Amino acid sequence: MSVAASLSVFGGALLVALGVDRFLGEPPVRWHPVVWIGNYLNLAAPHVLRGAFAAPAARDLKAFALGALAWSLGAAAVLTVATLLQWTFLQGPAWLAAVLLGLALKPLLAWAMLSSEVQAVEDALAQSLDTGRQRLAMLVSRNTASLSESEVRESAIESLAENLNDSVVAPIFWFVLFGLPGAALYRFANTADAMWGYPGLRNGLNWQWAGKWAARADDVLSWLPARLTALLLALIAGRLNLHALRLEARKTPSPNSGWPMAAMALALGVCLHKPGAYALNPSGGVSQPENTVQALRYASKVLLAAVLCAQLAIVLIAFAHFND
Description:
This protein is mostly helical and 324 residues long. It has one domain (3-323). The chain contains 11 helices and 4 strands, in the order αααααααββαααββα. The strands form 2 sheets. The chain has a two-stranded antiparallel ribbon with strand order 1-2. A two-stranded antiparallel ribbon has the order 3-4. A hairpin with a 2-residue loop joins β1 (201-202) and β2 (205-206). It is globular and about 55 Å long.
């Protein structure tokens, strides 16, 4: 395929995916690849946990090996399907390949749903605190029953910043580098981390070692995209301070999610904290409704910047391959 055709396919596919995301939203649950990934992980979980220690222990190599094996089998299946789909699409005309590749890429991106869910939390808070807590519980895994109004809002903004990387920037990043297989593998790893990557007990089940491979794989694949997301946020907000950003990002247990969350806290000039865990930008103000609006505005600009950077990268990669 010529350079021009490659540009039109992969650059066009990204635009198709974002257009479908904007105007059509998520596909039905039964046709959603991320749901299929979740189903596989749920089915594999009892086998991964078989024989695992009842409580966290220093070393549980059997649980670790089973978790790594199940992760690898799932990842291999995802890569195989994504590679075959992309190869099949590329056999046809460039315009059709772009459309089909974009449709396949769309479920791996979730900007429209993310932004609408965060706005829904703010709208629910405007009704009552209890309504806001209930709506937030649909977005985050933490217990929301005792959160104050500002804590509910902070949690929603933190989720926006973290998932801006997980559901938007990182899939685009890996799509640019490795096409549909790259984006699909990332979504598999990110979903596996969300479902298995707990540092201890979860609902009475010990994931300390069983989920360690999944957690580390996501850490590796999210490392650079998370920092790119934070950098774009800081640049767009006009508050680029790498020293402050690094200090705040290190306060969270995750080696990656703290970066976009810290960047958002600094960009908004507010404190984002998880009770009993961390406080990002502790000298910042208390979050207000207008901060949610501003956070969504910053995030949408990060999306635009990420797409522009992706299109430029696709051009450079295509010409590099052509010159080889």
